[in-house]
Amino acid sequence: MSLAKKLARQEIVTMTPYQSARRLFSSNNANQEAIQKIWLNANEASGPGIYQLSSDCLNRYPDFQPDNLLTAYSNYSQLAKENILATRGADEGIELIIRTFCKAYQDNILICPPTYGMYAISAENHGAGIIEVPLIINPNTDIDLDINALAAQVGKVKVVFLCSPNNPTGSLLKAAQIRQVLDLFKDSAMVVVDEAYIEFCPENSVSSWLLHYDNLIILRTLSKAFALAGLRCGFTLASSEVITLLSKVIAPYPIAAPIAELASQALSEKGIAQMQIRVQETRILRQKLTTWLQAQPWCQQVFQSDANFVLFKSQYKDKLFNSLKSQGILIRDQSKQAQLSHCLRISIGSERELALLKKILDKSLQKMISGHLFSTTENTL
Ligand SMILES: Cc1ncc(COP(=O)(O)O)c(C=O)c1O
Predict the structure, then answer these.
(1) In angstroms, what is the span from residue 231 Cα to ligand 1's centroid?
(2) Which of 125, 211, 226, 333 has the maximal Cβ count within 10 Å?
(3) pTM
(4) How many CB atoms lie within 10 A of CB 38?
(5) For the stretch 41-72, what's the b/e string if a residue is b when 16 or more beta carbons lie within 10 angstroms of its beta carbon?
(6) Where are the domains positioned within the chain?
């Protein structure tokens, strides 16, 4: 039996997925015969609504996996369509993976905190256990996986979540260590590499490894570099066998027609070129912000980031956070995360937004010098 079938919940392997009207008969545009059918099998209205979208198909359920969208992502990712599942954001991918591979109240996932919070939330929702193997954060903020501690968990977990670049640290995992984890768990667990931020450092993607590792699953999204968080569109990349299993668990019509239309435009040649310009701008602004933070007396540490945010440590983090908040600028407090006490995360906004942020923090510094703001030290580090 294949690894995926061995690992998956048996009820998923044997179940027949919901046979939606559009799964039974796709309305794929390439198939003229299908378009000419009279669709009376899904209790739909027969005419278009009053919407202004270029798409006139809002009265119809969309295809289970809209072909224009999968073709666009296949071209972009250089993977076959059978290796791609479009989802409502990468978050839905996380949930599907847990629901597919973990038996509730029996199986565990493994996470490496500090990391993205939804792995644990989705596991909890489903009743899966959570085993933590913390990242090793070196003094220079370089990050390592704890390979020995991970090896001790082989056989105890069904899914391992790695995140590279990692949220909230921004750091990439080392390719050699990801390989070690894939090898360690090759007979016992799926290894998810969350590449939500990979467009900011595309040369570090492990998507080409899918050919060699049948326990590798990759998560992607249009929410970050493609600037389409409101669209709720992500992609899970894996062997066709894993994609087939996840397809049994996902909702019957996961991708709304307008989403597929807009996402396909974002994945066109022009859309990708625009995304790449955005990535270049983000990298320049990130470097400027990093250099600036490093020069601030209130900043103890800045994490090296390969994503669209920067994490830093300050013993005055509450005061910095609040002075920004009082001026309408919201950043993210990460100090409750393991190993990240006193840490704040700034997303790379526009040049104007970051200039404003620096100005407000500069003013705080002036107050600090004149003894007003930091007259009482917050917590000691
Ligand atoms: C590491 C990581 N993975 C996944 C997601 C979820 O992305 P989406 O908006 O596609 O659901 C996020 C969102 O912040 C993230 O940081």
Answers:
(1) 13
(2) 226
(3) 0.90
(4) 6
(5) eeeeeeeeeeeeeeeeebebbbbbbbbbbbeb
(6) 3-7+64-267, 281-369
Q: Is the distance from the beta carbon of residue 89 to the nearest atom of ligand 1 less than 6 Å? A: yes
Per-residue pLDDT tens over the stretch 231-266: 999 999 999 999 999 999 999 999 999 999 999 999
Helix or strand (DSSP H, E) at 357: helix 351-369
**Fold type of domain 3-7+64-267:** Aspartate Aminotransferase; domain 2 (3.40.640)
The C-alpha angle 218, 256, 84, rounded to 5 degrees, equals: 25
Mutate to test the pocket of ligand 1, among 223, 337, 348 (most ligand atoms within 8 A of CB): 223
Ligand 1 and 116: CB distance under 6 A: yes
Could you confirm whether domain 281-369 is CATH 3.40.190.10?
no
Burial 8-30 (b: 16+ CB within 10 A, else e): bbeebbeeeeeebbbbeebbeee
Q: Taking residues 35-41, report their average pLDDT.
A: 65
Return the number of other C-beta atoms located less than 10 Å from residue 261's C-beta: 17
The CA 163 to ligand 1 mean position distance, Å, reads: 10
- CA–centroid distance, residue 176 to ligand 1 (Å): 24
Nearest to 167 by CA among 243, 221, 233: 221
> Is the CB–ligand 1 distance for residue 87 below 6 Å?
no
Q: Which atom of ligand 1 is nearest to the CA of 229?
A: 9
Decide whether any atom of ligand 1 lies within 6 Å of the 91 Cβ.
Answer: yes
| Cβ atoms within 10 Å of 155's Cβ, excluding its own | 9
